[in-house]
Each structure stands twice: as structure tokens, then as C-alpha cells.
């Protein structure tokens, strides 16, 4: 099973989800750690290659953006409450910034 690594404040943001949404996010991330796909997700190519958004519909709309293409870990880039029809630009930009940091950590530019 891959390790789970949180970027920036994503772990604190996930902890702020309502209990049912937090449990669902935890289950979905566990599935990803096992090499499986989450039950409700979409690719996020605007964030980076291999980035996905887990969609949770419990007490509102909640999102977890992650990347699992690295062998050692699933990186959780950003967790947030979605309040607009499309994913807001600041959320995409923050996830993309954290995605780039992973590349820097792996010696890529």
C-alpha cells in the first residue's frame, strides 16, 4: 500500500469536512492507496498529468485533489468545499502549485 502524503494545509482542510464527508474521503483515499480508483472522480489535467478530483456529495459538495502516479505515495494536493458549478480557479491554481512542488521534490523541473 502506498503512503499518504498531504501537501500544504490539505490535511487540516480535510479534517474540517463534516464527519460523513470526512469518512467518505478517507475511504476513497484508502482505495487509491491500494491502487484502485475512487467511486466518483474526474481527471484534473489543468492541475497536472495524473491528477484527479474525488467528488463527495454529503452535506454539500466536497473535493479532494490528489496525484498517485509516484510509486512511493499518494499526494493529497488540496481539499475543499465546492460552492460553485465549476471548480474555482483559485482551487485549481493552489492544487497545480502543490503538484509542481512534488516535481521539485523528485528532482524534476
Amino acid at each position: 500500500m502506498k503512503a499518504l502524503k498531504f501537501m500544504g494545509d490539505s490535511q487540516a482542510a480535510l479534517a474540517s469536512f463534516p464527519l460523513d464527508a470526512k469518512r467518505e474521503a478517507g475511504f476513497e483515499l484508502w482505495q487509491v492507496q491500494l491502487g484502485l480508483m475512487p467511486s466518483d472522480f474526474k481527471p484534473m489535467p489543468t492541475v497536472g498529468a495524473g491528477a484527479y478530483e474525488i467528488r463527495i456529495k454529503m452535506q454539500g459538495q466536497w473535493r479532494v485533489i490528489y496525484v498517485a502516479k509516484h510509486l512511493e505515495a499518494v499526494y493529497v494536493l488540496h481539499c475543499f468545499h465546492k460552492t460553485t458549478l465549476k471548480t474555482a480557479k483559485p482551487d485549481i491554481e493552489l492544487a497545480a502549485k502543490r503538484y509542481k512542488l512534488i516535481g521539485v521534490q523528485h528532482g524534476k523541473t
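The two ends are 27 Å apart (CA to CA). DSSP finds three helices and five strands in the chain.
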